[in-house]
Amino acid sequence: xxxxxxxxxxxxxxxxxxxxxxxxxxxxxxxxxxRRFLQATGVAAGTGTLLGTQSGRVTASHTECDAADRWVxxxxxxxxxxxxxxxxxxxxxxxxxxxxxxxxxxDSGVSSHYLVKNYDWTEGPSAGHVDQLVHHDRAAWHARxxxxxxxxxxxxxxxxxxxxxxxxxxxxxxxxxxxxxxxxIPLEFYTSKTCIQNEPGGIIGHTHVPDGxxxxxxxxxxxxxxPDWDMDHFADxxxxxxxxxxxxxxxxxxxxVVTTTDLNGREQPCLNxxxxxxxxxxxxxxxxxxxxxxxxxxxxxxxxxxxxxxxxCSENYLAHA
Length: 321
Ligand SMILES: [Zn+2]
Known about the structure:
Blueprint (H helix, E strand, L loop, with lengths): L19 H6 L4 H16 L24 E2 L5 E3 L6 E6 L4 H9 L9 E3 L13 E3 L5 E3 L4 H6 E6 L9 H18 L5 E2 L11 E4 L25 H10 L15 E4 L3 E4 L8 E5 L4 E11 L2 E8 L4 E6 L3 E3 L1
Parallel strand pairs: 1-5, 3-7, 3-9, 4-7, 8-9
Antiparallel strand pairs: 2-6, 4-5, 10-13, 10-16, 11-12, 13-14, 14-15
This protein binds zinc ion.
């Protein structure tokens, strides 16, 4: 029985496919690689992005978080040489439309993963609108080399001491929670110059990341995202919405869980993805990834030792073991 099919909405998860070849390829490579695989597919599954070299998976949206409203492709980005452990906060020092043009133009020499609209009174969408410009697996050009390769960059419309609106803070907080969940980035907020190479990761303003080695934090004298950005307030918003309501903190990586009914385990975290196996009630598993949101369901990536399989299951039928 398909107990996770309540509220099924195939349109919402259109385009998610399984990738058994990837699964098979890593079968002999041990748990660490399998976990890496699960994380990689989790990123793709929330979003409709292409995974690996598969073709023909055309989807309407290339955004990777529900918090992003629109995909607008930037020209400037590079292959990463490091994993993602930071989120760098910026302000544009210019109105939205001009900033969008700059961040997507090949001539500008810059880009960012995201641009958040701050004001209702400037040209463009309403305050709180989020554009995604670069996919997470590529390094955007929003800071200096080291920071670019280790981070996701979020630009926020801002200029002339006009402040940061609640709508902008709230959209950005949603976005940061999604990115942090996806890439296991600690919800630690840094408000002074930090040698990011020596820290476990977190959220930091542009002006506080190093230019290269940790001796210089110059940034051409810019103070982005300050003085108007309030990192303490932002931290409260990000952390507050992470509590209560069960959306995000129900389980931690490595938690032992048990199924509370017969439950489908899927290749990807959406209802129309292939069922890898059906876990009978009482099956033990370990949380390896998540949470992901799809079809109004919170999904967790699980390793099921009894079947030696990695699957995604609905949170609704999982309990701590
Ligand atoms: Zn900046």
